[in-house]
Specification:
Elements: H1 9-22, E1 38-52, E2 66-80, E3 83-99, E4 105-116, E5 120-124, E6 130-143, E7 146-161, E8 166-175, E9 179-197, E10 200-218
Antiparallel strand pairs: 1-2, 1-10, 2-3, 3-4, 4-6, 5-6, 6-7, 7-9, 8-9, 9-10
Length: about 220
């Protein structure tokens, strides 16, 4: 009999990291008024943590429930036309699953939650040495299409950076005949270990920060 086919944990891990990286991608926007140059400056930082009790050695036990949990959080400050807006969010998602006697993956309940604004307190060290999250998150549990509110969960995460810091930078230029958009991005990521309440500890975690600037110039003033 072939080995059980597990839900693509690594694919979901990559997806989580791409979501964080997507925060550094700029979407060109027209100037706010004819003849006006628009400059948008964005600064963001965040972290992820991935936890699982799926066995790293050997085969999963038939009928036993396993759990994959993804935690993601970020804070941002966006300055546009002299006005700065700030925000933060935190989310988690836990999937329960098992395997039958034939090794077939069987998905169980999913529990998830999302919070933003004043419910989220996040600090990230600029050098990515550490980060701390405290968030009160409304949670929902869904099983076979039936969902129930679980009240709030106190989501706590403490990260410690452990790996090499990877730096990225880029520049984009776009001209569509009406406007010219020039964008700059820069950022860093670092692998980390994390203690996640109420879920446990993991070495499958990361910290990141990024900054970007987008300058949009109408063709008439170029």
């Amino acid at each position: 009999m072939t080995a059980p086919t597990r839900m693509p944990w690594m694919t979901r891990t990559l997806t989580c990291l791409l979501v964080a990286g997507a925060a550094l991608t700029l979407t060109p926007a027209p100037a706010h008024a004819a003849g006006a140059t628009s400059i948008v400056l964005t600064r963001e930082a965040g972290g992820e943590a991935l936890l699982t009790d799926y066995p790293t050695v050997g085969r999963p036990v038939t009928g036993r429930s396993y759990h994959d949990t993804i935690v993601s959080t970020a804070l941002s400050a966006v300055r546009s036309d002299g006005t700065t807006s700030r925000g933060a969010f935190a989310s988690f998602s836990t999937t329960t699953y098992s395997f039958d006697a034939a090794g077939t993956y069987v998905e169980g309940a999913q529990t998830s939650g999302y919070a933003d604004g004043a419910a989220v307190l996040l600090t990230v060290d600029r050098s990515l040495r550490s980060a701390r999250l405290r968030a009160t998150v409304p949670a929902t549990r869904c099983d076979q299409g039936v969902c129930n509110d679980l009240g709030t969960v106190l989501l706590t995460v403490d990260w410690t950076g452990t790996g090499v810091t990877t730096r990225t930078a880029g520049r984009q230029y776009l001209h569509d005949g009406k406007t010219t958009v020039t964008s700059w991005t820069a950022g860093e990521t670092r692998s980390a270990q994390a203690t996640v309440g109420p879920f446990g500890s993991t070495t499958a975690a990361s910290l990141w920060w990024g900054t970007s600037q987008q300058r949009t110039v109408p063709s008439m003033v170029r």
